[in-house]
Amino acid sequence: MSEQNPPSSDAPRPLNRRALLQAAGLGAGVLAAGGLAAGRASAAAPSGESGAASGTTSAGAAPAAAAASSADLPLTGGSEFPIGLFWPPHPFETTLARYQEISDAGFTFLITGNYQFDEQSGGWALKMADQTGLKVLIAGDPRIEAIAHYMSVTDDRSVPSSLTTADAASWVQAALGSYNGHASLAGFNVFDEPAQSRFPTVGALTNIVRNVAPSLLPYSNLWPGNGAGYAAFVQAYIDTVKPPLISFDRYPILSNGIDLNYFDNWAIFRDASLKSGLPAWTYIQSVGYNGHRVPTASQLAWQVNISLAYGCKGIQYFTYWTPDPARGEGFTQALMTVDGKRTPLYGAAKQLNRHWLQPVGRELKPLVSESVQHANDTPLPPSTVAFTPGDHLTSATGDAAVLGLFKAAQDDGTRYLLVANRNPDAPATVHLGTNSAHVASVSRFVPDDGTYRPINRPATLDVALDPGGAVLYRLSPS
């Protein structure tokens, strides 16, 4: 599929999760949203509040700067690394056993879907999540979807198909009232893959959610892309929407190899994340579909580790449950089959999530990406940076690897080095020289017990990597 530039608002896309949502019956719910929300808005709105005209009410007119920061919101805040999934079990399989199965596999949250597009099914998903320690982002609520996709939020009543800020806030309050009372409620999926023309509305909704429900996460995800045009698209999203995080989806395990533009997409997102101070999330491919093969266990790990090396602060799987092939896109196999049987990917994801991503993610989540370099990677993929000696590493020889260097937000001289295998399908060995002027000692992170084990000869690191694997080191200053 073409991913060189962000598509225009009416450009067709070979794979669009929003289309997948709509194919699951969302359209009818959106058409009914106006009446549904209108019937509840007056009851949901606090009495005596006039909305946007006053400029200070809980209806959403307060400035977004007054809302909680990313560090204080569900999933983006706290020490736990967010590991999510899209396309959960459908309503008939939304059971305590199924949600325990998700939790057992090391997932921390899910985004509703797969016919979970009404209050009853969304509420039931939250009830199951309450009992299994999972968090939930509600996707497809018809009131929020109707505003996001078909309306404009403005107090200029001459704009066609518009809602005032106060009315839009009442719709959001009505939606919130449908799901309140659940500890698992983490927030709302405001818009999946918005066109740039929808950014003002997505921004208005994001602001309303942040003010109506300041303890919840308003979440949106961007489509993939490359080059300067895409970088401008991402920056426009940040400037217009003012989101609490940025997220994108790109699925690099192609039928004929690896999508090398994956690195450029990540480089753009990393730059945007560092510039804005917003955490960057991504989706990894965990399903086969048109032009994309079913990933192996090492290819799952490779996507996770390349993302971590580029500063990722949240991983989401696309998909968990296999979508019905009748919907199109040629879906073949995810972690669970269409009829709910575990595939080998379930076991691979469980091992990866629980024994690597959870513990390593906790280490990396509070850190700041300082550099990402590709060592021994010839020819260099587009937009990647070749290794050069620096303050902490003097040499890198052997097989190809991606070197992610991190520091604490309050820099104390310590560096954390993630060495990721550039090859998803074969083992690698990399030899790294450390700079004694800045590195006094080196220790290797042990995921099983969450500790760092000292390296006896820190001047040279001989790093053995599994296919798609990675190793995390702590470089302590002199």
Low-confidence stretches: 1-14, 25-66
DSSP strand tally = 21
The major pleated sheet works out as: 8 strands, parallel
**Rg over alpha carbons:** 23 Å
Helical content band: 25-40%
Spatial shape: globular
Strand order of the largest sheet: 7-6-3-2-1-12-11-8
Determine the mean pLDDT: 89
Write the layout of secondary structure elements.
Elements: H1 17-31, H2 33-44, E1 83-86, H3 96-104, E2 109-111, H4 119-130, E3 135-139, H5 142-150, E4 152-153, E5 162-163, H6 165-179, E6 185-192, H7 199-212, E7 217-221, H8 227-241, E8 246-249, E9 253-254, E10 257-258, H9 262-276, E11 280-285, H10 297-309, E12 314-318, H11 344-364, E13 368-375, E14 393-398, E15 401-407, E16 415-421, E17 428-434, E18 441-446, E19 451-454, E20 460-465, E21 470-476
Notable characteristics:
eight-stranded parallel β-sheet, six-stranded antiparallel β-sheet, 478 residues, globular, alpha/beta
Give a short summary of the structure.
The chain is an alpha/beta fold and 478 residues long.
Kindly describe this structure.
Helix 8 (about 225-240) packs parallel to helix 9. This protein starts with 16 loop residues before the first helix and ends with a strand. Strands 7-6-3-2-1-12-11-8 form an 8-stranded parallel beta sheet. Strands 13-15-16-21-18-19 form a 6-stranded antiparallel beta sheet, with helices on one face. Strands 14-17-20 form a 3-stranded antiparallel beta sheet, with no helix packed on it. The protein is about 30% helix and about 20% strand. It is built from 11 helices and 21 strands. The protein has helices spanning about 15-30, 35-45, 95-105, 120-130, 140-150, 165-180, 200-210, 225-240, 260-275, 295-310, 345-365; strands at about 85, 110, 135-140, 150-155, 160-165, 185-190, 215-220, 245-250, 255, 255-260, 280-285, 315-320, 370-375, 395-400, 400-405, 415-420, 430-435, 440-445, 450-455, 460-465, 470-475. It has about 475 residues and is of the alpha/beta class.
